[in-house]
């Protein structure tokens, strides 16, 4: 059985939802505690949403120094699929696994809504089950979701096809409408919206989160 580690930091909120989405895709969810220095032999890792360390300093800035992150960084650099959702995306940027940084939303309010996105890249471990250019709607809920990077970094992301999701109707001021990006190899993806909240018809207005986890299952089944 394919095993997907879901990290819990102090202040994580959506680790249980991420684990549930993993199970719905027919994969095994393995809890990984932030203070552990082992990845327990998992095949992929999810850094979930939430408020790690109370969002002190900057969102994700302290979680990046949790012992488990040393192992996550090594595994990601060796090609393991890693998905950072919202606070997890912030941790990936703070870890320098992904470039750029998140600042406070334009308007300086916490935004919580269903958000339309366009899937711009389907050659990643987490988006291969989408049709190129697919328009999807998933939950967005954060205070620091305004993605910014230096002009040459933005140009590099554009030129190399590493912008994975773009907002349709920019909710927070993100540069180039960026909602999610990948690393060069496409195994590491971070996005601000929450696919793990869009997997169950009982509570979600769309099931557009399911292909993220189906994409991972497909990639690992081929490996
Ligand atoms: N939902 C989340 O993961 C929120 C991330 C972070 N705490 C923020 O408000 O930006």
Q: What is the element layout, followed by pairings?
A:
Layout: E1 3-8, H1 15-24, E2 28-33, E3 44-47, H2 67-77, E4 82-85, H3 87-94, E5 101-103, E6 111-119, E7 135-142, E8 146-148, H4 151-159, E9 163-167, E10 178-182, E11 188-191, H5 210-222
Parallel strand pairs: 1-2, 1-3, 3-4, 4-11
Antiparallel strand pairs: 5-8, 6-7, 6-9, 9-10, 10-11
The structure holds glutamine (GLN).
Glutamine binds at residues 49-51, 55, 59, 86-87, 141-145.
Structure write-up:
β10 (178-182) and β11 form a beta hairpin. The protein is α/β, with parallel strands linked by helices. It has a single domain (3-222), classed as 3-Layer(aba) Sandwich (Rossmann fold), CATH 3.40.50. 23% of the residues lie in helices and 26% in strands. It has 5 helices and 11 strands, in the order βαββαβαββββαβββα. The longest helix has 13 residues, at 210-222. Residues 49-51, 55, 59, 86-87, 141-145 line the site of glutamine (GLN). Residues 49-51, 55, 59, 86-87, 141-145 line the site of glutamine.
Question: How many separate helices?
Answer: 5
String of helices and strands: EHEEHEHEEEEHEEEH
Low-confidence runs of at least 5 consecutive residues: none
Largest sheet: 9 strands, mixed
Number of domains: 1
Helix content: 10-25%
Q: What is the CATH third-level topology name?
A: Rossmann fold
The CATH architecture can be given as 3-Layer(aba) Sandwich
CATH class: Alpha Beta
**Order of strands, widest sheet:** 2-1-3-4-11-10-9-6-7
Average pLDDT figure = 97
In whole angstroms, the N-to-C terminal distance is 13 Å
Q: In percent, how much strand structure appears in the residues?
A: 25-35%
Rough shape? globular
Class from helix and strand fractions: alpha/beta
Catalytic activity: N(2)-formyl-N(1)-(5-phospho-beta-D-ribosyl)glycinamide + L-glutamine + ATP + H2O = 2-formamido-N(1)-(5-O-phospho-beta-D-ribosyl)acetamidine + L-glutamate + ADP + phosphate + H(+); L-glutamine + H2O = L-glutamate + NH4(+)
Active site: 86 (nucleophile), 194, 196
Main location: cytoplasm
EC number: 6.3.5.3, 3.5.1.2
